[in-house]
């Protein structure tokens, strides 16, 4: 499964380069956003073992509830 996703990612990167989707602006933005993303991933990985299953579920449910509420059509005027 890992090999499939690795090959899929490689093929996508090549096709994105061919189609010109990787510009200097997108690469710069990806590098800038990659820093806080990496920090968050490391912090999450380190704190994962310290939390209980119940806490993990509550946080996951809260994130899902926020995503469901934020995607309601009533909030379209705030995000468009």
Give the SSE map.
Elements: H1 2-19, H2 24-48, H3 53-70, H4 76-79
Q: How many structurally independent domains?
A: 2
* Helix-strand sequence: HHHH
**Overall body shape:** extended
Contiguous runs where pLDDT drops below 50 for at least 5 residues: none
- The gyration radius over C-alpha positions equals 18 Å
User: How many beta-strand runs?
Assistant: 0
The biggest sheet amounts to:
none
- Helix % is over 70%
Structure notes:
It contains four helices and no strands. It is extended. The mean pLDDT is 89. It has 80 residues and is mainly α.
Features:
single chain; 80 residues; 2 domains
Short description:
Helix content is about 80%, strand content about 0%. It has helices spanning about 1-20, 25-50, 55-70, 75-80.
